[in-house]
Amino acid sequence: MKNPSAYDVVIIGSGLGGLLSAVMLAKEGMKVCVLEKNKQYGGCLQTFSLQKHVFDSCVHYIGGLGEGHPLHQIFEYTGIMPQLELRAFDANGFDRICFGDLPTLYPLANGEANFIEQLSSYFPQEKEAITQYIAAIKNVGDHFPLYRLRLGAAAEKQAVSGWELTQKIAQITPNKRLQQVLLGNNLLYAGVPHRTPFYIHALVTESYIHSAHKVVPGSSQISKFLIMALRQYGGEIYNHATVEKIAVENGVATYAETADGQRFFARNFIANIHPAILLPMIDSTVIKTAYRKRISQLPQTTAPFMLNIVLRPATVKMRHYNTYWHQHEEALKAIQYIPGSFPETYAAYFTESKTHRGYAESVSILTYMHYDEVEPWANTCNHTLSKMDRGQAYTDFKEHHAQLLLAKVSQHIPEISANNMTHSVATPLTYRDYTATPEGAFYGILKDVNQPAATTISTRTKIPNLLLTGQNINLHGVLGVSITAVATCAELLGDSYLLQKIKQ
Ligand SMILES: Cc1cc2nc3c(=O)[nH]c(=O)nc-3n(C[C@H](O)[C@H](O)[C@H](O)COP(=O)(O)OP(=O)(O)OC[C@H]3O[C@@H](n4cnc5c(N)ncnc54)[C@H](O)[C@@H]3O)c2cc1C
User: Fold this and answer.
1) Does the first or last residue of the chain, that is N or C, have fewer Cβ atoms within 10 Å of its Cβ?
2) Domains in the chain, CATH or no CATH each
3) In which band, very low, low, confident or very high, does the pLDDT at 454 lie, cut at 50, 70 and 90?
């Protein structure tokens, strides 16, 4: 049992949200402890290797790490920015969007003026509309004060939060193909027609238009440097520490208890885990039954399916851009694929070989998969600390879907199948078991423009010393989670104080 006065803050979960919060609080003098259930820290920042090639489990590229962007400033403040080994994508098209078997790759470029110029060369009649689009996403960003590292009122956000994504894009341009190109990298936010708010699209795409980078040694470099910073500021972090209970006395959280019975006492707690996983850990009437029910019933974003391929050396040309392919004219339709039509979209993320420059050593292919496809194996659990063979039928299922995906990829990039040395597959169950996200959801809770209040979770809870952080609160992704970590820490440090420190 830890000393009752041991910590100022105990953080549950070492995803980006937990680690960033930990470093910010420790840097400002608090005694912080992070508890992580897995062996490897970082949640979605984890990497793994296949035939000695490093693969990102989730984060293949990051928007907003370029100088002058708030994310750059936040990483700078934590001290990790100069340490990261980053590689910028092709500025004239970091993402390229294609449809069916048509050869055209429509570029989404870095820099506002360059974005307009590059895309206008494919849509010369639409230059004005593309300019309007850039103005619209910038306008949304301006209404989210923390995305500009400034103080502001909630009313500002509300003024731009009620627009539905497809409607807003249709208002900007009647050109159907341009609309779909603008929606082309929707795997980045798992957009659902008539439900996803425009602001989600705007905040995500604005950051990538600002700058798009890959962490060259793998996304776990971010967690590695954050942990080094945390320790340097006197913080502690433990793996193999699954929190099962948060004790509450007189309406205040007192300790977090791990599966092995250890108790971690603190004055404050931050949960970097999905709220639906957190609430059952809290045995207190302070959290009302109606709230518990609402959170447990919230719809999740559609889950990912990822195929990671090691390529034969010096065979597949390196692309310094990501390809997003759509079977349909409508880019958002693929998320609602019906069984038998899997997959209707994919993204291909290449990693350059260190020994054969100009060639790719590996590629990760990402698509959607509905959780009910893996429901037959829902009661299995397989991760590094709890190895379990889900059985031959599951292995066959994975391989069948890997081949379906490869067949679609071959239409545009045939050299991938031909040079596939070995591959591994991650399904919604993989993501569920490694991050404890219900149904292995891509980005946690689905934000629904029709139910803004119900699907927006606050950083505060009814328990005054229990705060929330991570992708389920506000926005997902490296940018969204980092901004939320600032919002969470501002509750303990004061918002103007923290923003001033970050901007310094
Ligand atoms: C397939 C995929 C691809 C993505 N690609 C990108 C991308 O290219 N760029 C981008 O910016 N974003 C991307 N994202 C989104 C981004 O990775 C996430 O939004 C973000 O990393 C989530 O961070 P988090 O801190 O909210 O939580 P998580 O990363 O989910 O971390 C939560 C942590 O809590 C731990 N935990 C859970 N329960 C317990 C418990 N009981 N006790 C202790 N610990 C616990 C988990 O093990 C985990 O380590 C992608 C996500 C996915 C799934």
Assistant:
1) C
2) 7-85+216-298+455-503 (3.50.50.60), 86-215+299-440 (3.90.660)
3) confident
